[in-house]
Amino acid sequence: MSAFQTAAFYELLGNSAGRLEREGDFLLGALARAPMNRVADLACGLGLHAQFLADHGAEVCATDLSPEMIRHAQETRAHPRIQYVVRDMRETDGGPYGLILCLGNSLSLLTDTTDLQRFFTAASTALAPGGLLVTQTLNYDAEAMKRPRIRVERASVDDGDIAAVKRFLPGAESTLLSITYYAATRTAFMDTTETVRLRHWTTQALIDAAERAGLTADALFGGFDKSPFAKDATDIVFTAQKPT
Q1: CA distance 3 to 72
Q2: What is the pLDDT averaged over residues 96-103?
Q3: Residue 29, pLDDT above cutoff 80
Q4: DSSP bridge pairs for 184
Q5: Are 47 and 33 found together in one domain?
Q6: 1, part of any domain
Q7: What gap in Å lies between CA 157 and CA 171, rounded to an integer?
């Protein structure tokens, strides 16, 4: 690896196959319920979900604020039914869509209620009548999420090893996440750190923002296996529908 690229580290450390095994059936069920097969994948990252849905017949507009992520997705997951665009997740253009996704805890990057409402309002405007919005955030009310913690992800590459060390420091309304990426290969020895603040969105905050945007709260799950949401669930998987 001759140059450091965050997207490449995400690709190598992200366990893409395992993620689709957990989430794929849920997403196909949502696509089957959608009134049309046009999908917007907001904060699409590596394009994993976009490619999966395009492979199952969807026409996908996949957007991300990071030009690096979009470039990587275009290079690794090009598909005739995917359009990749650099765009903020608070802006949803090009509708109507039958299904809009915002997964991977991306909504927690929006740190105030104004931005959260802007997201839901834009998504509602872009949805077709009867269309579905699916969001996935982490459940910061779970006891395990309230403690400082460190997680290490590691992978071997052809000429060495790479790793990501993630440090979580929870506060009352947000968690400070610091990620240090390391590469030790024959051609590179490097590290770089990025730090973000993750807002603790509650189920009620999501429901209220959706309803203010004219959507109807549809379902609330504790994971993509459709387990009922409970206080100690790992995830908040929320679906909302636009009235017909």
Answers
A1: 14
A2: 98
A3: yes
A4: 161, 189
A5: yes
A6: no
A7: 36
